[in-house]
């Protein structure tokens, strides 16, 4: 599965990388692992409300908001759990 990142998610990952490179590397690894094997053991939930068409992947204190289709994994946002659902 191909992975595409929104401009917003790239900025968020860079910000995380500045403060904690290990966390950023872990997040990237989990995204790549999910893209290789979506049926694996991941903490995935379908969102509700205004985000109902999207899913989230939990990586410790961070949430990756994404959508998948046509063999493409599109990453919309990477946020800390406290901020992930406020928009």
What does this structure look like?
- This protein has 87 residues and is of the alpha+beta class.
- The chain has a single domain, classed as YaeB-like fold (2-Layer Sandwich), CATH 3.30.2310.20.
- It is built from 2 helices and 5 strands.
- The protein has helices spanning 7-19, 21-36; strands at residues 2-5, 44-46, 55-59, 62-69, 72-80.
- Strands 1-5-4-3-2 form a 5-stranded mixed β-sheet.
- A hairpin with a 2-residue loop joins strand 4 (62-69) and strand 5.
- Helix 1 packs across helix 2 (21-36).
- The protein is globular, with a radius of gyration of 12 Å.
- The termini are far apart.
- 23% of the residues are buried.
How many domain units? 1
- How many distinct beta strands? 5
Sequence of secondary-structure elements: EHHEEEE
Give the N-to-C terminal Cα separation.
28 Å
CATH architecture: 2-Layer Sandwich
Strand fraction? 25-35%
Query: Structural class, please?
Result: alpha+beta
CATH homologous superfamily classification: RelE-like
CATH topology: YaeB-like fold
For the CA atoms, what is the radius of gyration? 12 Å
Which stretches are low in confidence, meaning pLDDT under 50 for 5 or more residues running? none
Count of alpha and pi helical runs: 2
What is the mean predicted local confidence, pLDDT? 91
Task: Describe the protein's topology.
Elements: E1 2-5, H1 7-19, H2 21-36, E2 44-46, E3 55-59, E4 62-69, E5 72-80
Parallel strand pairs: 1-5
Antiparallel strand pairs: 2-3, 3-4, 4-5
Helix pairs in contact: 1-2
Q: What's the short version?
A:
The chain is of the alpha+beta class and 87 residues long.
């Amino acid at each position: 599965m191909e992975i595409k990142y929104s401009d917003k998610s790239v900025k968020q990952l860079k910000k995380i990388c500045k403060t904690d490179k290990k966390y950023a590397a872990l997040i990237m690894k989990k995204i790549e692992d999910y893209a290789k094997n979506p049926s694996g053991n991941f903490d995935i939930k379908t969102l509700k409300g205004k985000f109902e068409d999207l899913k989230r992947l939990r990586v410790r204190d961070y949430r990756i908001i994404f959508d998948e289709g046509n063999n493409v994994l599109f990453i919309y946002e990477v946020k800390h759990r406290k901020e992930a659902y406020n928009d």
